[in-house]
Write a structure and sequence with these properties.
By secondary structure, the protein is mostly helical. The protein is built from 11 helices and 3 strands, in the order H-H-E-H-H-E-E-H-H-H-H-H-H-H. A hairpin with a 5-residue loop joins strand 2 and strand 3.
Length: 231
């Protein structure tokens, strides 16, 4: 039996994983350096629902195998670049909160790989039709209520469904995750989750779907304007 058959695929269940915005990697690495990204990812692995965590600099240094002075400098660099907010709790302890990161057009829409947004998918009618994707519905029905993600797209779809408390529409979110960049979906999810309850007309799930269509339409307009300016 091969090593590949013996090895286990890492589990994304039970809170054993975390995610960060792609633009942090693509746009901020040159500004904060590799250790900056490492510290940022470490903080991201510890944050609560308010995107806050409270590790001491000593604890961070021990876990990452670097000096406390390096951690101190790196945290200040992250704060000065707008990636985190530092709140002093007392003389020796601070709270670290991950800031909302803006997604540029270049980061939001990858130019390579299967994360590209095909122009035919920017039509609102198409977004509605994908709900009835027979293959996706069949796949979900065969697995029953216990859906175990096996791919990155399925994991993203399940994450969206659970975050919006909308598992009944898992097929729709799986369609989204297979067709649109994760950064676009995460951006829409973040805005939907941050909206105060009293400002939501229907549901957070409905708001999320509205935002997805909005961002797709905005990208289509941006792309058309860019193409026209090049002519």
């Amino acid at each position: 039996m091969s090593n590949e058959q013996n090895s286990e695929v890492r589990s994304f269940n039970n809170g054993e994983w975390c995610w960060i915005n792609k633009s942090v990697i693509q746009e901020y690495t040159s500004k904060v350096g590799p250790i900056g990204i490492t510290v940022y990812c470490f903080l991201a692995s510890m944050v609560d629902s308010e995107q806050k965590c409270f590790p001491s600099q000593k604890y961070i240094a021990e876990k990452l195998g670097c000096s406390r002075a390096t951690v101190s400098r790196t945290l200040k660099r992250l704060e000065s670049n707008g990636l985190i907010r530092i709140e002093k709790r007392n003389r020796y302890h601070c709270a670290y909160q991950l800031s909302r990161v803006s997604i540029t057009d270049e980061t939001q829409m990858s130019h390579t790989g299967n994360s590209d947004l095909h122009q035919s998918y920017t039509n609102d009618n198409y977004l509605i039709r994908i709900i009835n994707d027979i293959d996706i519905e069949k796949s979900l029905n065969e697995q029953g209520k216990e859906f175990t993600p096996k791919t990155r797209e399925e994991l993203l779809a399940l994450d969206l469904a659970d975050a919006l408390n909308d598992r009944k529409a898992l097929a729709l979110y799986l369609s989204y995750s297979r067709r649109f960049p994760e950064s676009l979906l995460r951006k829409a999810l973040g805005e939907a989750k941050e909206m105060p309850e009293e400002q939501i007309r229907k549901s957070r799930a409905a708001l999320f779907n509205h935002l997805v269509r909005k961002y797709v339409k905005e990208f289509k307009e941006y792309k058309n304007n860019r193409d026209q300016s090049r002519d």
